[in-house]
Amino acid sequence: MAKKGNKIAALDTDYTKKKYAEFQKQQRQLVFRRRRLAVILLGALFIFSIIGVQIFRDMQRLDKLAELKVEATTEMKEVKADVTQLKADVSLLKDDDYVAKLARSKFFYSKEGEQVYPVLESNTSSSTEGTNQSTSSTTAK
Predict the structure, then answer these.
(1) What interhelical angle do 96-107 and 14-93 show, nearest 10?
(2) What is the pLDDT of residues 13-69, one digit of tens each?
(3) Is the torsion defined by CA of 69, 72, 76, 78 positive or negative?
């Protein structure tokens, strides 16, 4: 078999040279536009990726803050309950009769001429501990 050769030849005229130069210029402009578009797209992709990472981090931070808010509100409710209980205790401590009763029961204080007798009480409700004894006081005048 005979090898087929290239039978097309370029004309070497001023018109063909001019058209060939215009074609090469168009090709260079096309390559330049494609490269410029690629650079713009890469820049936009980079910017969007940075923004996406920041949004993701902000969402995680928001979730943590929401958890902290829930914990803080539950703690605040507990503290408010404690404050109301302490206010009630303070109002009771302003009463002299309550303070005297409290001092007698906790510290075995007595009035003048009064005698304090400790009495052992046994609890029969506790079956696992055998005999459970506690001390209480009775006063007699």
Answers:
(1) 90
(2) 999 999 999 999 999 999 999 999 999 999 999 999 999 999 999 999 999 999 999
(3) positive
What is the per-residue pLDDT across 42-56, written as a single tens digit (0 to 9) for each?
999 999 999 999 999
**Distance of alpha carbon 54 from alpha carbon 56, whole angstroms:** 5
What single-letter amino acid sits at 3? Answer: K
Cα–Cα distance, 53 to 63 (Å, whole number): 15
Residues in the chain: 141
Contact 117, 137 (CB under 8 A): yes
| Helix (H), strand (E) at residue 140 | strand 132-140
DSSP 8-state symbol, 113: T
Phi then psi for 23, rounded to 5 degrees? -65, -45
* Residue of 59, 40, 66 whose CA lies nearest to 51: 59
